[in-house]
Write a structure and sequence with these properties.
Layout lengths: L8 H10 L9 H29 L3 H25 L6 H8 L2 H36 L15 E5 L12 E4 L2 H9 L9 E3 L4 H16 L1 H26 L23 H12 L4 H7 L8 H30 L10 H8 L4 H34 L18 H15 L4 H29 L12 H17 L3 H25 L17
Antiparallel strand pairs: 1-2, 1-3
């Protein structure tokens, strides 16, 4: 039993040229938009608030900078891999070609979790913006069905709302909000309180996006391109429209003193915040899962990966800085922090446009997450590590429809119950682990196969790749223990499945037939 048998890179390249089971429909603009569609969204629209309120304060800007620097290192490594191995599967496929089957299984199992939990996180944020947007037009979703199970909501009357910088109606309760209510002379016990049952809007958006992915990748990409244009426009609208409402006092202290708990303000909070917002940089990673559907992957994959990363990092920094300048960071621990900031800035109809753009933007992020997840399933099943029905392609739409549906149902169930912070932290650790594998893998490939023709080469690879791996490990170490515990449980399940099924059914475990090469030994 060879647990480190590898797929040949030259065989993968040949397979990419001859395999047309997935339609090659995506050009560099589609791929860049795919990355922007994933990156702009969660970090700006969802995680900015919770990281500012619970970890870094106004220094959430530094958290984004640290996460962005680590992402640049990983992006350069991803780009070389994506141009060398233009197959669906992202880091899973890269790991299979360089580090062996067991490591590939670990990273594939990790990516299944990463993309699924990513979609859950974003669906929860999407729900928060939809509830806020509909409330602006007098439409209120029943509060018990508007947020994660167990979330406490409090009803803010019109007379109290301006005194506590909150909107009228049902809002998420927090210690900071309750303190402000008391300061305003109102007893919180006299206000209506509801504990939510499940998150209905989050479930609905998952079902809609799943249906879109089953129909086809080209249709999904066209939808995504339109959404990305809307999203970038409203992000810029927020930057210019809310800038006037910045109160520099909200940025002081820039790094609040540590409360005595690791990861809660101080530099440890900035690092923990960077580990959490790293989730938002999953976007360029998701671009690489679509390599088998790119028209010219050797040229277009690096453009899509690096281009989308650079555009979005700048916007992240600007938006998080403005949001914490407009609203005291303690009030941003909500699923829709940019909506709160837009309302506080008195943006009126522009605020509604921003919420609508956030809804559109988060929709595109969910699309990219579920796209990546189903394609990793597809790749692992084709290699024999998962049952063959998982890789079944729809005869008309030529998409892995069965895995898309199963994934959608599972994500919908958990998005109804999880909080945005629980899901975001778990996805971040999965993303970081994928970055470590890819950064190490590119060095292994340089040593094992130095003469492979490379359309794109990682510059200063002996600095960039170790820096990518080390920075990702440091950010992983800053994440809280409950996140690690959930990851370890998920991996334990995966290892059992691999040794009971995948190790025996793997295509590399089968005797080579005439005309095929045996697996490369680790």
């Amino acid at each position: 039993m060879n647990l480190f048998r590898r797929k040949s890179v030259t065989d993968l390249q040949a397979e990419a040229l001859t395999d047309h089971s997935l339609k090659r429909a995506l050009g560099p603009i589609n791929l860049t938009a795919l990355g922007v569609g994933a990156i702009i969204g969660t970090g700006i629209f969802v995680l900015t608030g919770t990281v500012a309120a619970q970890n870094a304060g106004p220094a959430v800007v530094l958290s984004f900078v640290l996460a962005g620097v680590a992402s640049v290192f990983a992006a350069l490594c991803y780009s070389e891999f994506a141009s060398l191995v233009p197959m669906a599967g992202s880091a899973y496929t890269y790991g299979y070609a360089t580090l062996g089957e067991l490591i590939a299984w670990i990273i594939g199992w990790d990516l299944i979790l990463e993309y699924a939990v990513g979609a859950i996180t974003v669906a929860i944020g999407w729900s928060g913006y939809v509830v806020s947007f509909l409330h602006d037009f007098g439409i209120d979703i029943p509060p018990a069905l508007s947020a994660a199970r167990g979330t406490e909501l409090i009803n803010i009357p019109a007379a109290l709302a301006p005194l506590v910088s909150a909107k009228v109606g049902w809002v998420m309760s927090s210690a900071s909000l309750l303190d402000q209510i008391k300061t305003a002379g109102t007893d919180p016990a006299t206000l209506g309180v509801v504990t939510t049952i499940f998150n209905l809007p989050a479930v609905l958006i998952i079902f809609i996006v799943t249906a879109l992915l089953v129909v086809g990748i080209k249709e999904s990409a066209n939808f995504n391109n339109l959404i990305v244009l809307v999203k970038v426009a409203v992000v810029l609208l927020f930057i210019f429209g809310a800038f006037h409402a910045i109160h520099s006092a909200n940025w002081h202290p820039f790094i609040p003193a540590n409360t005595g708990a690791s990861g809660h303000f101080g530099w440890s909070g900035v690092m923990t915040g960077a580990g959490i917002v790293f989730f938002a940089y999953i976007g360029f990673d998701a671009v690489s899962t679509a390599a088998q559907e790119a028209k010219n992957p050797q040229r277009d994959m690096p453009i899509g990966i690096i281009g989308s990363l650079l555009v979005c990092t700048v916007l992240y920094i600007l938006v998080s800085g403005i949001a914490t300048g407009v609203v005291p960071y303690g009030l941003l621990d909500v699923p829709d922090p940019i909506a709160v900031a837009a309302d506080s800035a008195g943006m009126g109809w522009m605020g509604r446009l921003i919420k609508l753009g956030a809804i559109a933007g988060l929709s595109s992020v969910i699309l990219v997450m579920l796209l990546g997840q189903s394609r990793v399933f597809y790749s692992m099943a084709r290699d024999g590590l998962l049952p063959p029905f998982v890789s079944r392609v729809h005869p008309r739409f030529r998409t892995p429809w069965l895995t898309s549906i199963v994934t959608g149902v599972g994500v919908a169930i958990f998005s109804a119950l999880f909080t945005v912070r629980e899901a975001g932290s778990l996805c971040s650790i999965g993303t970081l682990l994928a970055f470590v594998i890819v950064s190490v893998g590119i060095l292994v490939l340089r040593v094992r196969e130095p003469n492979l023709p490379r359309k794109f080469t990682t510059p200063w690879v002996w600095f960039v790749a170790p820096a990518g791996a080390l920075s990702a490990i440091l950010l992983m170490a800053a994440l809280p223990w409950p996140t690690w515990r959930r990851l370890l449980v998920w991996f334990a399940i995966g290892i059992v499945f691999y040794f009971c099924y995948g190790v025996h059914r793997s295509k590399l475990a089968q005797p080579p037939t005439s005309g095929t090469k045996p697996a490369t030994s680790g």
